[in-house]
């Protein structure tokens, strides 16, 4: 979760020096902190981190019967109430957030496509209301909009470390969806698909929320290939303790720990966690 503090540092009668604050010049200060994320702006291995100066956040501000878009740059110029462009006399406004800021300059809805997005870790914060009064703060809780698929490979000695580092994984899945920033929702996942490739013994994919039946994994090592849908793994896993879920929800992470052996691929354990815990799956799979 990302916590965004929009501190409406408003003094209705006086500022710190005692001078009156002109109407509309009440400053909105943005202070940020990040908890449990995956990538940019600046994140540690466990996902914790923070926004950095220069990061741009899209704000959807609603008040007085009007909704406006504002781009806020961390460490940039101050944002004032009069800059919001809300109707005169508006004393309350709701702020919703989106990172990264979409390319479109207007509106609260846009199409997000993982196959073309430079920053794939889309973060959305639902609207929070703030009053135009002294020392008002609004907390925006950002959450991951995408699903994270993490796959870790190991070997029982059948394959070398060099071969493990060369494992090629192709994940084919739906890649596009509609985003409503004001509501902080993702919907209307399109039928368009894309193939995402990664090499190595630890790979990560960010996916549009969809069913596990709609995601296909192709794994190649040492001249051998295995290909299944995620849902299809439930049919080939041996001694599985839990099924792979039917839905891959946004903000959640499915982790597969796969061990290559002479008898095929052994699923030592798979779990959904990191962001939100959904359980653990153990089982075996053959090539």
UniProtKB/TrEMBL annotation:
Pfam families: Mfa_like_1. This is Fimbrillin family protein. It comes from Alistipes communis. The lineage of its organism: Bacteria, Pseudomonadati, Bacteroidota, Bacteroidia, Bacteroidales.
């Amino acid at each position: 979760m990302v916590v965004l503090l929009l501190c409406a540092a408003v003094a209705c009668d006086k500022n710190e020096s005692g001078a009156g604050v002109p109407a509309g010049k009440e400053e909105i200060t943005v202070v940020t902190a990040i908890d449990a994320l995956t990538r940019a702006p600046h994140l540690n291995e466990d996902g914790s981190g923070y926004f950095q100066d220069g990061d741009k956040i899209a704000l959807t501000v609603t008040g007085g019967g009007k909704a406006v878009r504002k781009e806020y740059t961390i460490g940039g110029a101050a944002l004032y109430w009069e800059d919001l462009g809300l109707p005169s006399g508006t004393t309350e406004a709701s702020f919703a957030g989106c990172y990264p800021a979409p390319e479109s300059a207007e509106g609260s809805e846009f199409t997000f496509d993982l196959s073309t997005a430079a920053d794939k870790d889309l973060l959305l914060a639902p609207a929070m209301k703030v009053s135009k009064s002294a020392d008002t703060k609004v907390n925006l809780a950002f959450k991951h909009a995408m699903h994270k698929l993490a796959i870790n490979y190991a070997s029982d000695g059948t394959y070398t470390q060099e071969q493990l580092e060369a494992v090629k994984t192709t994940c084919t899945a739906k890649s596009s969806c509609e985003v409503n920033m004001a509501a902080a929702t993702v919907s209307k996942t399109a039928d368009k698909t894309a193939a995402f490739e990664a090499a190595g013994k630890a790979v990560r994919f960010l996916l549009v929320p969809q069913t596990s039946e709609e995601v296909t994994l192709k794994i190649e090592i040492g001249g051998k290939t295995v290909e299944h849908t995620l849902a299809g793994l439930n049919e080939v896993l041996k001694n599985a303790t839990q099924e792979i879920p039917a839905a891959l929800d946004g903000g959640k992470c499915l982790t597969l720990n796969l061990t290559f052996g002479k008898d095929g691929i052994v699923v030592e354990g798979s779990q959904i966690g990191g962001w939100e815990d959904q359980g653990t799956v153990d089982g075996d799979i053959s090539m």
